[in-house]
Recover the amino acids of this structure.
């Protein structure tokens, strides 16, 4: 059990101002925004609320230091990230508590996210010194080609509330490794984790102006003028498809490089030949990580008719046994949803499926208490045409849709504009490969329920996004290719 005094100390310990040009400043307007604890609905604290004037101050700083930062030795850029990794891990416990307080996930998951965020810094620390080019002869032998990589320039980074530290680290890590300056706009629900990350990176040696952080209650007023300014050269966004599409339109004016990690609608396919223990375990991870509030969350669980009843029964037992409560409490496995609106949406999707004939195996209603709790829910016999099969649920609801044949499962799984991740459980190797190839998603979890890993290329296709974060390609998103043609051979 975490003591209230400790909670106060970790919240008090965060710089609640704007980070601009290496200084912690109050916003020009003096405004603040309130940060809520979603497990109680009460206000945790207030933080500085940036406006357009502050955004331009951050842009001035980013533009001013960009040329020198681009020349900063790659090894030293890497060492800064490595120190950031170590500091995050040293302070994992307090950072996890801070994250749980503002976002709601249980402490064990927050610890996991701090480690995940740190791992992005470690991964990109290692990548900073591996930015390579090439030297070759032109095919006609009359010139030489020198190909080099250079940082794209100042970047606008926009992150959501569901992974408040890892989504920032996943963007800041490669930006710093590549030699780009960056302005981070965290989600207004969860600015504390982002501010704490920035403070740690400052302590790790990020020079002034290289990273600015602008919490704001008016996202458009901070980001749009910068995207339309011309000095920002890249926008990296994680969030919903609707907002991503709008940012792409804004980015068109100055033809910005873009990385878009957008919404998901992951199908989770369980074939009759699957190991049912593994499938249930994988479904628990794919569904319940982050209270179901993950872009990678299994949104539609397709179970073949031979295995569907047992899969549904066993998944319901596991879901029904989960402990719901405030994430700071010992033994709690499921925290609250982020706000009342999120919970209303989940209830609406459950009601719609039930009205169309789905059966509630477990849950199906809000949890107790003042926070935005929702009971872990399994719905069986869900018709494919239910609203939830086309909508990101973003909550602890597992809808099971039965299917007969592989062709039918694939057609239903691909029947969505999203294409982030899918999951497949089967013990037939040929089927595993055939189905993985046919699924229209950027990632596939094959007999595993989690795909996120800093060393792997994370990202989606179709309306789930553009570009990849992590893996060897993660840094590429922050680099331009320059070719120098050398004559006089
Ligand atoms: P969201 O509403 O799109 O917000 C994401 C971020 O964009 C927030 O910081 C938000 O700030 C900002 N934003 C909203 N409107 C903006 C505008 N007009 N200009 C600039 N910024 C703007 O998404 P969310 O509800 O926070 O997050 C959930 C979504 O993120 C889901 O769709 C989920 O699938 C997706 N996600 C994707 C990934 C991935 O890697 N593919 C990972 C995690 C989450 P405000 O709240 O102030 O508007």
């Amino acid at each position: 059990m975490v003591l209230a005094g400790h909670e106060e100390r970790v919240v008090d310990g965060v710089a609640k101002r704007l980070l601009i040009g290496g200084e912690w400043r109050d916003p020009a307007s003096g405004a603040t925004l309130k940060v809520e604890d979603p497990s109680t609905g009460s206000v945790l604290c207030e933080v500085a609320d940036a406006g357009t004037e502050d955004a331009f101050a951050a842009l001035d700083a980013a533009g001013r230091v960009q040329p020198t930062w681009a020349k900063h030795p790659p090894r030293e850029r890497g060492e800064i990230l490595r120190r950031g990794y170590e500091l995050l891990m040293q302070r994992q416990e307090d950072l996890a508590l801070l994250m749980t307080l503002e976002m709601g996930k249980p402490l064990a998951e927050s610890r996991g996210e701090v480690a995940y965020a740190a791992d992005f810094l470690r991964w990109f620390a290692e990548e900073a010194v591996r930015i390579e080019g090439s030297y070759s002869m032109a095919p006609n032998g009359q010139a030489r080609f020198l190909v080099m990589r250079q940082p794209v320039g100042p970047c606008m980074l926009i992150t959501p509330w569901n992974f408040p530290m890892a989504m920032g680290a996943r963007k800041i890590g490669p930006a710093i490794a590549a030699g780009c300056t960056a302005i981070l706009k965290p989600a207004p629900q969860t600015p504390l984790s982002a501010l704490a990350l920035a403070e740690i990176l400052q302590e790790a040696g990020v020079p002034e102006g290289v990273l600015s952080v602008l919490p704001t209650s008016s996202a458009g007023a901070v980001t749009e003028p910068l995207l339309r300014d011309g000095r920002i050269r890249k926008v990296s966004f994680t969030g919903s498809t609707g907002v991503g599409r709008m940012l792409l339109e804004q980015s068109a004016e100055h033809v910005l490089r873009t990385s878009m990690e957008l919404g998901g609608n992951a199908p989770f396919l369980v074939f009759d030949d699957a190991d049912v223990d593994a499938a249930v375990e994988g479904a628990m991870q794919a569904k319940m990580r982050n209270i179901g509030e993950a872009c990678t969350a299994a949104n539609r669980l397709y179970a073949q008719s031979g295995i569907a009843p047992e899969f549904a029964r066993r998944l319901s037992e596991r879901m029904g046994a989960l402990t719901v409560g405030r994430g700071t409490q010992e033994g709690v496995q499921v925290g609250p949803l982020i706000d009342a609106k999120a919970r209303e949406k989940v209830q609406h999707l459950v009601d719609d499926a039930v009205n169309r004939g789905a059966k509630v195996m477990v849950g199906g209603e809000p949890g107790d208490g003042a926070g935005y709790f929702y009971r872990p829910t399994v719905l069986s016999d869900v018709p494919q045409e239910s609203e939830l099969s086309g909508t990101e649920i973003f909550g602890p609801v597992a809808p099971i849709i039965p299917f007969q044949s592989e062709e039918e499962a694939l057609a239903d799984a691909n029947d969505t504009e999203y294409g982030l991740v899918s999951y497949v459980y089967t013990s037939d190797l040929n089927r595993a490969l055939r189905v993985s190839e046919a699924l229209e998603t950027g990632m596939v979890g094959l007999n595993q329920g989690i795909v996120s890993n800093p060393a792997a290329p994370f990202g989606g296709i179709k309306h789930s996004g553009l570009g990849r974060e992590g893996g060897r390609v993660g840094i590429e998103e922050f680099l331009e290719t320059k070719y120098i043609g050398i004559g006089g051979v």
